[in-house]
Amino acid sequence: MPKKHQTEYELLVERCRSVIKVGSKSFSLSAHLFGKEKRDGAFLLYGWCRYCDDEIDKASASETSEQLQRRLATLRELTEASYSSSPMSHPVFAAFQHVVHKYGIPRHYPFELLEGMAMDIRQEKYPDLDTVVLYAYRVAGCVGLMMAHVMGVSSDKALRHASDMGIAMQLTNIARDVYEDASMGRVYLPEVWLREEGIARDAIREACNTPKLVRVVSRLLDVADGYYASGDAGLKYLSLRSACTVASARYVYAEIGNRVRMRGIHAWSTRTWVSLPRKLLVMCIGVMKVFLTRPFGKGWTAHRIGMVWEHAGILFGYLFFGS
């Protein structure tokens, strides 16, 4: 649609879609499985998450802690304003305002996420697994909670599983990005685990510690697997299409963890990634597992086989023709 004919809402969605396509190719790919309304909601929510994250991360190398705290204070003010009925001039927060009002996203979720960013600014240390999981809950579990509302789910049981899925994905990110995070002074691995292996916090990237680091990260990925299992148990609360979307993203993230495991001591020499054909394969596995775990009933065959073909068409259309 030519931009001059697009509504303000459509322009916001398009802006956020462009952001997610660059910032998270895996999530962008999975989001194609949503219906239009939920896909737009996911894009608008992600636009806010990515903007806030970039505001802090991109300035971390050049600004003092006090300057970063001021940036965070501005993000908090704009986020708070998004919950009012006053129009927002900032496009990212105008998009976020639309999402929180349309889907009734509780106020404390985005502020928990911003508190996770505050933990980064303070360069907090993580003495044990519980503190690592708390961080993962704040920066990713809360995203899962907000996405649950976008997908029309708000029961306590469903929300716990949604949070766990986000935590699992963040633990996978931590495992993949150990060296990259350490270069910024951030170590998200439990210090008690590092001590057990004889690894000093400031010596994580030393070659002599790599075999030990492999063992620490393997433990973290084992923990992530437990959270993935909990997230899987929550898929039953979602509509069929939403469950397929979440499962496809889950299997892509889990595959990143599998790749980290397989690469062993070479896991951080270059960034671990999953090729597009491999992503599509594991996404198809995720979609099929959802279909196979749904109960059979009248009309199952025609309806669900039709959806299988629709989802397969979306994924392979992406492979051959892009988005």
Structure description:
The chain contains 14 helices and no strands. The protein has about 325 residues and is an all-alpha fold. The chain has helices at about 10-25, 25-30, 35-60, 65-80, 90-105, 110-120, 130-150, 155-175, 180-185, 190-195, 210-235, 240-265, 275-295, 300-320.
What tags apply to this protein structure?
323 residues, 2 domains, disordered N terminus, disordered C terminus
Quick gist of this model?
The chain is an all-alpha fold and 323 residues long. It contains 14 helices and no strands.
Q: How many beta strands in the DSSP annotation?
A: 0
Number of helices: 14
Name the helix and strand elements from N-terminus to C-terminus, one letter apiece. Answer: HHHHHHHHHHHHHH
Shape: globular
Give the CATH H-level superfamily of the largest domain: Farnesyl Diphosphate Synthase
Q: Which structural class matches the secondary elements?
A: mainly alpha
Mean pLDDT: 88
Q: How many domains, in number, for the residues? A: 2
Task: Report the helical percentage.
Answer: over 70%
Terminal-residue CA separation: 15 Å
Indicate the CATH architecture of the largest domain. Orthogonal Bundle
CATH topology of the largest domain: Farnesyl Diphosphate Synthase
Unreliable sequence segments: 1-5, 318-323
Name of the CATH first level of the largest domain: Mainly Alpha
Rg is 20 Å
Main sheet: strands, sense, barrel: none
Q: What fraction strand?
A: under 5%
Topology:
Blueprint: H1 8-23, H2 25-31, H3 36-60, H4 65-82, H5 91-103, H6 108-121, H7 129-150, H8 156-176, H9 178-183, H10 191-197, H11 210-233, H12 240-263, H13 276-293, H14 300-321
